[in-house]
Design brief:
The structure is a single chain. By secondary structure, this protein is mostly helical. It has one domain (about 5-95): Helix Hairpins, CATH 1.10.287.1080. Helix content is about 80%, strand content about 0%. It contains 6 helices and no strands. It has helices spanning about 5-15, 25-35, 35-55, 60-80, 85-95, 100-105. Helix 1 (about 5-15) crosses helix 4 and helix 3 packs antiparallel against helix 4 (about 60-80). The relative contact order is 0.13.
Length: about 110
Amino acid sequence: MIDPEVLQRLSATLAQRKLATPESSYVSSLYAKGTDAICKKVAEEAAETIMAAKDGDLRHIVYEVTDLWFHSLILLSQFGLSADDVLTELRRREGISGIDEKKARKS
Protein backbone atom coordinates (compact mmCIF):
# COMPACT_ATOMS: atom_id res chain seq x y z
CA MET A 1 0.00 0.00 0.00
CA ILE A 2 1.22 3.46 -0.84
CA ASP A 3 1.84 5.76 2.09
CA PRO A 4 0.32 9.00 0.82
CA GLU A 5 2.38 10.95 3.35
CA VAL A 6 5.60 9.90 1.59
CA LEU A 7 4.23 11.20 -1.70
CA GLN A 8 3.00 14.40 -0.04
CA ARG A 9 6.39 15.05 1.58
CA LEU A 10 8.15 14.39 -1.71
CA SER A 11 5.74 16.72 -3.53
CA ALA A 12 6.48 19.45 -0.97
CA THR A 13 10.23 18.97 -1.41
CA LEU A 14 9.91 19.12 -5.20
CA ALA A 15 7.92 22.37 -4.95
CA GLN A 16 10.67 23.83 -2.73
CA ARG A 17 13.31 22.88 -5.30
CA LYS A 18 11.68 25.30 -7.74
CA LEU A 19 13.15 28.08 -5.61
CA ALA A 20 16.67 26.62 -5.52
CA THR A 21 19.46 27.37 -7.94
CA PRO A 22 20.04 24.82 -10.71
CA GLU A 23 23.57 24.21 -9.44
CA SER A 24 22.32 23.20 -6.01
CA SER A 25 19.92 20.41 -6.94
CA TYR A 26 19.27 17.85 -9.66
CA VAL A 27 15.55 18.65 -9.53
CA SER A 28 16.22 22.39 -9.75
CA SER A 29 18.39 21.79 -12.80
CA LEU A 30 15.53 19.89 -14.47
CA TYR A 31 13.11 22.73 -13.72
CA ALA A 32 15.60 25.19 -15.23
CA LYS A 33 15.78 23.13 -18.43
CA GLY A 34 12.00 23.28 -18.76
CA THR A 35 9.09 21.02 -19.54
CA ASP A 36 10.68 19.33 -22.56
CA ALA A 37 13.63 18.11 -20.47
CA ILE A 38 11.33 16.87 -17.73
CA CYS A 39 9.14 15.04 -20.27
CA LYS A 40 12.24 13.47 -21.77
CA LYS A 41 13.23 12.11 -18.34
CA VAL A 42 9.72 10.70 -17.78
CA ALA A 43 9.86 8.99 -21.18
CA GLU A 44 13.36 7.64 -20.46
CA GLU A 45 12.27 6.23 -17.12
CA ALA A 46 9.13 4.70 -18.68
CA ALA A 47 11.29 2.97 -21.30
CA GLU A 48 13.65 1.68 -18.60
CA THR A 49 10.65 0.38 -16.64
CA ILE A 50 9.44 -1.52 -19.70
CA MET A 51 12.89 -3.02 -20.29
CA ALA A 52 13.13 -4.10 -16.63
CA ALA A 53 9.71 -5.74 -16.90
CA LYS A 54 10.72 -7.58 -20.06
CA ASP A 55 13.80 -8.86 -18.22
CA GLY A 56 11.59 -10.06 -15.35
CA ASP A 57 13.98 -8.73 -12.70
CA LEU A 58 11.59 -7.81 -9.88
CA ARG A 59 14.04 -5.66 -7.93
CA HIS A 60 14.99 -3.77 -11.09
CA ILE A 61 11.31 -3.21 -11.94
CA VAL A 62 10.74 -1.61 -8.53
CA TYR A 63 13.86 0.54 -8.93
CA GLU A 64 12.77 1.79 -12.35
CA VAL A 65 9.14 2.40 -11.34
CA THR A 66 10.48 4.44 -8.41
CA ASP A 67 12.45 6.58 -10.88
CA LEU A 68 9.38 6.85 -13.11
CA TRP A 69 7.17 7.99 -10.23
CA PHE A 70 9.82 10.45 -9.04
CA HIS A 71 10.15 12.09 -12.43
CA SER A 72 6.37 12.03 -12.91
CA LEU A 73 6.06 13.96 -9.64
CA ILE A 74 8.55 16.51 -10.96
CA LEU A 75 6.39 16.87 -14.08
CA LEU A 76 3.28 17.38 -11.94
CA SER A 77 5.09 20.00 -9.87
CA GLN A 78 6.17 21.80 -13.04
CA PHE A 79 2.47 22.49 -13.62
CA GLY A 80 1.61 23.34 -10.01
CA LEU A 81 0.15 19.89 -9.35
CA SER A 82 1.10 17.34 -6.71
CA ALA A 83 0.68 13.75 -5.62
CA ASP A 84 -2.54 14.84 -3.91
CA ASP A 85 -4.07 15.60 -7.31
CA VAL A 86 -3.28 12.08 -8.53
CA LEU A 87 -4.43 10.47 -5.28
CA THR A 88 -7.73 12.38 -5.54
CA GLU A 89 -8.22 11.08 -9.07
CA LEU A 90 -7.38 7.53 -8.01
CA ARG A 91 -9.94 7.78 -5.22
CA ARG A 92 -12.52 9.06 -7.72
CA ARG A 93 -11.88 6.11 -10.02
CA GLU A 94 -11.88 3.52 -7.24
CA GLY A 95 -14.65 1.00 -7.82
CA ILE A 96 -15.32 2.18 -11.38
CA SER A 97 -14.55 -0.26 -14.16
CA GLY A 98 -11.90 0.88 -16.62
CA ILE A 99 -14.37 0.50 -19.46
CA ASP A 100 -16.96 2.73 -17.76
CA GLU A 101 -14.33 5.31 -16.77
CA LYS A 102 -13.08 5.60 -20.36
CA LYS A 103 -16.64 5.93 -21.69
CA ALA A 104 -17.29 8.77 -19.23
CA ARG A 105 -14.25 10.68 -20.51
CA LYS A 106 -15.58 10.58 -24.08
CA SER A 107 -19.01 11.96 -23.22
